[in-house]
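Problem: given the chain below (261 residues), write out its structure.
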Amino acid sequence: MDALLEVRNLTKLFPKKPFLFAPDKRSMFAAVEDVSFSLQRGEALGLVGESGCGKTTIANLILKLLSPDRGEIIFDGEDITQLKAHREILPVRRKMQAVFQNSGSSLDPHMTLGKIITEPLKNFGLPIKGKAEQYLELVSLPPDWVSRKPHQLSGGQRQRVSIARAMVLKPKLLILDEPTSNLDVLTASQILALLRHLFEEHETAVLFISHDIAAVDKLCRRKAVMKDGRIIETLSSLSLEEASHPYTKKLIESKLSIDKS
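Solution.
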């Protein structure tokens, strides 16, 4: 298969204490350390682990919101590792979109849903007529909601709008960073079903970042488990039978104990 995304030996260091001036290696820690993985076109890959293990840092590195200290990021056949200038990153952003955890803070409260969804098209000088209605319908919201504002929607509905905004550019890669963690169980299940339908129908590759192993297991064919900035194993099923690392087994056992309680 043709890899859309290749991450090779990626490392990101941060100061152990904030606001350090010109810190040396002894005063740094690795939020991400020597991480490598690939994502095929149209594939959904899960990145799972507890808070603080480096999942979101990886997302920010791929999205070019951070620069790595070591390693390479190859996206759609191009080495984007050292891209920094806005004019260099802009073409990459058109092919790579993200949906974040807090839909409330990622949607401008002063904008209508129509303007929120079509803003990416406007930024790239693309036609916008009828697109807001089309993409509201795509995420199972009424097309005539184009004039509504985010405060008129529930949390799940706002997350659907975030997904519509991300999909309107028809990206090759969709990065989902804890997109269901602020939602109730029923709404989260509906959002997962929507995401599965979208990436299967539109052949969009998905990097799904979550601490919820049940959600990752449901959505993704492969699951990479992270601990302390490293990927410790990659599995086809988050089950005790397949897991080999003690940390992975601990995560699965924790989930099983919650399900039984």
